[in-house]
């Protein structure tokens, strides 16, 4: 989202061309049950429309400009547009079952990792999709964060790097749980991610991958 309209096909193609290891996107359900890609629950910030996604049909969402003439994409369209592994974040708990059905239908457990801030969404997708890799996300968390990941069978935690400590990383690693830092948009945060020996990091700027090789 730092260089292209976020959650659009154009942004995903750009990320793939930049050689990113994976592409993160966000999922909601439209009023008529379509699995659409957008970060917020409302369309106001990222399109020229207004109102909740859940109150709009797919046809209505398709009429919106998601930036630079891009349209709100379906998850299925992203699958066809790029071959890079995906991390699909469930923003709306109701989208978990629809995502599970899509993953099973297209045999996506090896290509799509599923993440969410919602413990119940992670638990549901784990129960519905055999072999799926899952990530529990948190911005603020307590001492029980590793236990929460274990409870919902998440193989990784994605945690706000501004609040992440070595103690949390070591505790997670001690239980065989990976740790991803977000959002790593500066060289300082990239150096921190490496110092903490994180398993991965998310960024809004693909070029940090290239420049970080020399300056971090």
TrEMBL record:
Q: A Pfam family matched by this chain, by name?
A: GDPD
Question: Can you give the residue ranges of the GP-PDE domain?
Answer: 1-213
SUPFAM superfamilies the UniProt entry points to: PLC-like phosphodiesterases (SSF51695)
In terms of PROSITE patterns, this protein maps to:
GP_PDE
Identify the InterPro entries for this entry: GP_PDE_dom, PLC-like_Pdiesterase_TIM-brl
The superkingdom listed in its UniProt entry is Bacteria
Protein's name according to its UniProt entry:
Glycerophosphodiester phosphodiesterase
Q: Write down the species.
A: Streptomyces amakusaensis
